[in-house]
Structures are given as structure tokens and as C-alpha cells.
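We treat protein structure as text, and this decision shapes the records that our systems exchange. Below, we set out a record of this kind in full and without editing:

***
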Amino acid sequence: MQDFWDLWQFPNCVGAVDGRHCILQNFAHGASEWYNYKGSFSMILMAVADARYRLTYVDIGARGPHVMKPFAGQFLADSKIIFNYRLSRARRVVENVFAILSARWRVLRRSFIASKLTARAVIQAVVCLHNLLVLNEENVPPHQRWYIPPDITRVEGLREHQLPRFQEDALEDEDGDTIREDLEEFFVGPGAACAPWQWEHLLNP
């Protein structure tokens, strides 16, 4: 949680969740079970990534979790636009992980022709190897890293210095809609100081 606050300026967060379609040739007797809205067959890799690109939880073959969503609509209040930006910025962690996986493990760029068991094993192997390589580079200076060099991911406003510790009780434990509203208020109040560039995003989305 502290890493998400220090590196991404998002409070009370222990992981970013997203899913990726791993394209495959339909399994024998698979029927439409593995057919996706993009018009192909795939096995979904649902993943939770921490603030340093390590995968802390994966579900291979998942059907999609309930997650915090941005505010919908075209004409939103400034505070809601800021919230959507900060939420999307924190979720970028897991999006970057998927980009890294595709860049480093080319097997994910082509369609699997394998059994369900083998396809799942390949994805599991990629996840394990990714975490191993990330952990091996943790104490390596950024400019000397080869698996995740500084320019491989999109990170604006990332701060290397330590921010003030975020107080764990700053936001109450409430239902999802209330938490989203609390975060909306926090990001344009006390939480604005740690991400001053957010106002530029408001003016130039």
C-alpha cells in the first residue's frame, strides 16, 4: 500500500487489477466457452499487480471481477475528471505489466495451438518467470536493468523520493460508491499536493 502511495500517489491500494486475452485456437469440444467479444478465442489472464510490477495474484481462465470504475459521462465535474485520471494512472501499473509480458514473452503475441492444460501451464510459466526477473532487478539501478528498463513503461510524474506516509485511517472502510466519492474529494483536497501535474491533465486531457 505504501508503494502505491509513494510511486503512484493512490491511497489504500494494494494492487491494480486487469485482464488480458491470451489468444488461442479453440480447444476440442470448447464450443463458444472461450469465444470473446473481439471475435477470437482466448483464455483470460486476470492479474493483480503491485506498485513495482510484480504479479501478486493471477486467475487464468477468469470471467472478470468487480472493480472500482471511473465516473461515466461526458460532462463531468472537475473533481470527477481528476478522480478518473488518478484511478486510470494507478491501473496503468497492471496495463504496463501486460505490455512487459507481451514485449518479453513473444509466445503471448501469437495464437496458442495447445490443449487447455498446456496453454494454462505456458501462461503460469510466463507469470512465474516475470516475477523472478522483476525480483532479481529490484536492487539494480534503473539504467542497468534489462528486463524492465526505465523507458519500457509509461510513467509520468513518478517520484523517486519518499513522500509523507499516508495515514491508513484517512479514508473510512465503507461501500464501493462511498469510497469512490471519498477518493474524489481527497484527490482535489489533501491528496492534490502529491500530484500537482493533475491540474495540467484537467486543462489538457
About this structure: The longest strand covers residues 16-23. The radius of gyration is 19 Å. Confidence is low (pLDDT under 50) at residues 155-173.
